[in-house]
User: Which sequence fits this backbone?
């Protein structure tokens, strides 16, 4: 697994709170949502309930975008483009680890007979931005 | 132009500061960046320098995603999926209006002989979220 090549100026954002995940929907349009995430050894991972449309999108098309910004300075941000690798998380091993970051139990978000996967972002490109790129 | 159907609970986010814009790149992957935006009469518009990759992406594929969240409660957010309509802004008429929101002169961000367009988001779907959708 390639780790993220993030410049020191933006490395703190790998420990930020909420990120934005982009997938490509069946109609070809980007779909965006707020997600919790955990960076381990330079690899970004997300826990998703398999009932979510974004999991269906990623199974059909692994193209993924990830965005996290500095809440104090929203034009300082990290963008990662890549492909999603999806692994089952039947025992909530990763979900529990992620929950520790947020002091939350991810089981409480899930209905009966629901399942979780770990989405690992395999980076293709990383952009560390510190300006309004308009 | 269809205006956005945004529930009252999330309408304040239409006046928020920075948003995230998603386009689809030549490789089919989502590309995300922080953008300034202005909501006028329920329509979201963005000013972009035509030298930016995201303008090239939108000219090739109008599929667009827009995301804006509450900085105080990042899981309260508005997501808009739609198509981008692109119009020239040769006299900075829109860019100047947008600049007023941010007390900024967008000309100062542009090089000589650069041009701006107005990107108008024609909404196909609006999601007003108030939870972690993981």
Assistant:
């Amino acid at each position: 697994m390639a780790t993220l090549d993030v410049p020191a100026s933006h490395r703190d954002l790998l420990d930020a709170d909420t990120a934005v995940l982009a997938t490509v929907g069946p109609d070809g349009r980007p779909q965006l949502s707020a997600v919790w995430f955990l960076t381990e050894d330079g690899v970004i991972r997300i826990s998703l309930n398999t009932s979510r449309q974004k999991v269906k999108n990623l199974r059909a098309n692994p193209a993924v975008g990830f965005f996290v910004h500095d809440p104090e300075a929203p034009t300082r941000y990290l963008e990662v483009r890549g492909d999603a690798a999806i692994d089952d998380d039947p025992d909530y091993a990763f979900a529990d680890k992620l929950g520790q970051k947020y002091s939350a139990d991810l089981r409480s978000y899930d209905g009966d007979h629901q399942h979780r996967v770990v989405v690992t972002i395999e980076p293709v490109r990383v952009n560390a931005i510190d300006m309004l790129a308009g």
Remarks:
- The mean pLDDT of chain A is 94.
- Chain A touches chain B through 44 residues (CB under 8 Å).
- The longest helix of chain A spans residues 93-102.
